[in-house]
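Progress against Task 2.4 (sequence-to-structure conversion) is shown through the following example record, which the project officer requested during the mid-term review.
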Amino acid sequence: QGQEKLSCKLKKENGTHMVLCELGNPMKAGAQITVDMELSVSGLEDMGDTITFQLQLQSKNSPSSANASVKVMVPVEAQAEMDLRGNSLPATTVLPVSWQRVEDSRRQEDHGIKVEHVYQLHNKGPSTVSGVTLHLAVPNQLGGRFLLYLLELGTEGGMRCDDPPGLNPMQV
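C-alpha cells generated for the chain above:
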C-alpha cells in the first residue's frame, strides 16, 4: 500500500558482493511485497552482453525450500558517442597559374603543394570502446587525373591503419 525505503547494507564474502536488505520484522503471514531496487555497477566493459544477479529471500524462521535462490540475467549495453574531427594543414592552398607538374619526377614539390590532413577520433563516453573501425574515403582522382596524391598514412596512440590501394604509386 505505502512505499517505504529499505535499509540495505553492502557485504563482501568470499569475493562476492552482496546487498542485504531488511524487508520487515516481523512480517505477517501471507504478506506480499514488491521490491524495486536500483543498483549501480561499474566495470562492465568486459562483462559481455549480460550480468547475472543471484537473488534469495531468507527468513530467520525455520528453513524451507522457499529460500532457494533465483538467477536474474540483465542485459548490458555499453554506450559511447564518437566524434570525428579533421583539419587540413594548410587550410587553404592555391597553386600559381604558371605552375606545371613535372612528369616522372620523384620530388614532392614537382607534384604540387603538400597538404596534411589530420583526423582525430574522440570517445565522448560514457563507456570505453574497443574494436572501432573507421573507413575514410578520400577522392584522389578526378577525370583520370590526380586530384590528391596520397603519399603516406600514419597513426598515433596504438591504432592500426591499412594502406589504401594506390598509395604513392609513383614512389615520390
